[in-house]
Specification:
It is built from 22 helices and 4 strands. It is mostly helical. The protein has a domain of 305 residues. Helix 4 packs across helix 9 and helix 10 packs antiparallel against helix 13. It comes from Corynebacterium bovis. This is Hydrolase. Keywords: Hydrolase.
């Protein structure tokens, strides 16, 4: 089977359902009975409330996809689907470590069981769009094309291609959170659990695996491009667009499908230009995640506060007990994820904002005169990026961090003003080194950063190499005349007197033969 470079097989036109209504594989056999259009909701989740251990922290276990109480059959079906294959997951090589990735992948695939792969026609449409926008992007940035190919992808293909990157991002977070959970136990409990630590670590790995699997399943159904969140989650630099999302996304953006595809292709191609020609950028983002993870801990204060409210005497006072339970019912008693290295998170979010803002400006300049709807699509995309991606919230709850760009609009304004001030070439040169990039404060007040770039340009324009060389020679001469507390002057005078004496003795300074004759 041929390969399109993103790791996806050639998506031949084998969709049994070509009427576009997404009824292929309508999910009648899926856990939870969700619809087959990929919207899913909670239908494919093993637990409808989004937290497999919510009953430990005051949640409602087994709410079911429909949310109807007493639907025992659905609850048992979901639970059975979750338990099936646990033996293989526990013995898989991917089960070792802080996250059981075999379990995570299986749960994610269960959620995606009703989705379909793109057709050959879809990939051809993406390829045509990418070729077109690459020509336009050449006029808005000096960074050359970075994508080595193009492809249309579906949710399952996205999951397969991005899982290695997710492992790199999630491992340090899950490892630290697992340690924090064990450290949160009382000392006596930790000592008694010593022989059971291995099993407890496996349980933690399964817990993270289930949470990550559900989260990746949600993201896979919502993702539009491989670089949607300002980071290349796939390992190969291929411009990839989820054509199955075009109809829904076009409605949200208020545009036609064709214009939406061109806009997504332009964003994807611009991202790859940046990531391919700024080689340190991705590694810096990953290191920021690892540094953030190093300071992770769990805050049990909410649970401790609830425990303090409990008085054993309430067992004899049903009204007081019911009142306390009513107060706690709407509260989230789960341990909160906190980090002592919040600055690393700020750096990561600033970097993601700078990436997204730069792409906004470059794509806007490239498409502005060619696609009349660009401005309205860009505004709708910005709003969608800020508020329309709940899967990132699920990721934050699962591992304590999400790939969000909270100041993308501010970063776009900085890049836009910098382009006007110094041009696209000087703007793109800011990416040459991480020390040149704006920091978080510059996004709120870009004037000072832009002034610093303008000052550097003025210094370069005023630079005269000949004048600088002459100035250096004068400085060296001045240092030579003044060194040694007059020794330079006396040495010069002595040399002059010796020359005068030789001229007096020889009567000539023309050469050695004459001096020899006079002597």
């Amino acid at each position: 089977m041929s390969n399109f470079g993103f790791g996806f097989p050639n998506p031949g036109d084998n969709d049994d359902d070509r009427d576009g209504d997404g009824n292929r594989g309508n999910g009648s056999g899926r856990p939870g009975g969700g619809s087959g259009d990929g919207s899913g909701g909670q239908g494919g989740q093993p637990f409808g409330d989004g937290n497999p251990f919510s009953f430990l922290f005051g949640g409602t276990p087994g709410a079911g996809a429909s949310g109807q109480a007493g639907n025992l059959g659905d609850i048992l079906n979901q639970f059975g689907a979750m338990l099936s294959g646990f033996g293989q997951d526990m013995n898989s090589p991917d089960a070792a470590g802080p996250v059981n990735y075999a379990l995570a992948e299986r749960i994610a695939r269960q959620q995606l069981s009703g989705t379909s792969s793109p057709s050959q026609r879809d990939s051809e449409a993406v390829a045509e769009s990418v070729r077109l926008v690459e020509l336009w992007l050449d006029e808005s940035t000096d960074l050359p094309a970075g994508a080595t190919g193009s492809v249309s992808f579906g949710p399952v293909q996205w999951l397969e291609e991005t899982l290695p990157r997710w492992k790199r991002l999630v491992n340090p977070l899950a490892e630290k959170l697992g340690d924090a959970a064990l450290n949160g136990l009382p000392e006596e409990a930790r000592q008694q659990a010593g022989p059971m630590m291995g099993i407890m670590n496996q349980v933690n790995g399964m817990n993270f695996g289930m949470q990550l699997g559900r989260t990746l399943g949600e993201i896979a159904k919502d993702v539009s491009t491989s670089t949607q969140w300002g980071m290349p989650l796939a390992e190969r630099p291929v411009a990839a667009v989820a054509t199955g999302r075009l109809a829904d996304l076009a409605r949200k953006l208020g545009a036609e499908r064709r214009e939406t595809l061109i806009y997504l292709a332009a964003r994807e191609a611009a991202h790859h230009r940046l990531f391919q020609h700024v080689p340190w950028l991705v590694e810096r983002l990953v290191l920021d995640v690892e540094e953030f993870a190093a300071g992770l801990s769990l805050d049990y204060s909410a649970m401790e506060e609830a425990t303090r409210e409990f008085n054993p005497e309430m067992m004899n006072d049903p009204e007081a007990l019911q009142e306390m339970m009513g107060r706690l019912q709407g509260e989230d008693l789960a341990p909160a994820v906190v980090s002592s290295n919040q600055q690393a998170r700020v750096r990561m979010e600033t970097s993601l904002s700078l990436v997204e803002g730069w792409v906004d400006v470059v794509v806007g300049d490239a498409l502005g005169e060619r696609l009349p709807e660009t401005a309205s699509i860009a505004a709708a995309w910005s709003a969608y990026r800020d508020t329309g991606q709940p899967a990132m919230e699920s990721l934050a709850k699962a591992v304590g961090i999400s790939l969000t760009a909270p100041k993308a609009s501010e970063a776009a304004e900085l890049w836009r003003r910098l382009t006007v001030a110094v041009g696209a070439s000087r703007r793109d040169a800011v990416w040459d080194h991480p020390d040149f990039l704006p920091v978080d404060g510059d996004l709120d007040n870009p004037a000072e950063f832009i002034d610093s770039i303008l000052a550097e340009n003025d210094d370069v324009e005023r630079f005269d190499p000949i004048s600088e060389i002459e100035k250096l020679e004068r400085e060296r001469t001045g240092r030579g005349e003044g060194d040694g507390d007059g020794k330079g002057e006396s040495a010069s005078d002595g040399k002059g007197e010796a020359d005068d004496s030789r001229r007096d003795d020889s009567g000539d300074t023309s050469g050695g033969d004459d001096r020899g004759d006079n002597s």
